Amino acid sequence: MSVLRAESEYDSVKKEARVAYLIWVFSGIFGGHRFYLGDTGRSIAMLFTLGGLGVWTLIDLFLIRGRVRAVNRSRRAAVMARHGIVDVSFGSEPGPAG
């Protein structure tokens, strides 16, 4: 039952790449997509520099999907830890043998 509650909590806080790209289209130069992903410091920097005069905005076009994955991985780990669950299903890699 705890796993179901944890999964439900994670579903309520996870971010979607499609939403991040949509925000990027309409407010990318102001860092809206970064605010959505919780990168407040970088968002403010983009806001005051107009996306690094557009350079950061273009670079983010290629980085959004990976950033969404990283944010979701971190949020999932935090939720699972809060519920006392060891999460081995999300982005885990086996360690070196020996």
Automatic annotation (TrEMBL):
TM2 domain span: 15-62
Q: Does the keyword Transmembrane helix apply?
A: yes
Q: How does the protein associate with the membrane?
A: Multi-pass membrane protein
Show the InterPro entries listed in the entry. TM2, TM2D1-3-like
Q: Which Pfam families match?
A: TM2
TM ranges = 20-37, 43-64
Q: Where in the cell is it found?
A: Membrane
Q: Which UniProt keywords apply?
A: Membrane, Transmembrane, Transmembrane helix
- PANTHER family from the UniProt entry: BETA-AMYLOID BINDING PROTEIN-RELATED, TM2 DOMAIN-CONTAINING PROTEIN DDB_G0277895-RELATED
The protein's name is TM2 domain-containing protein
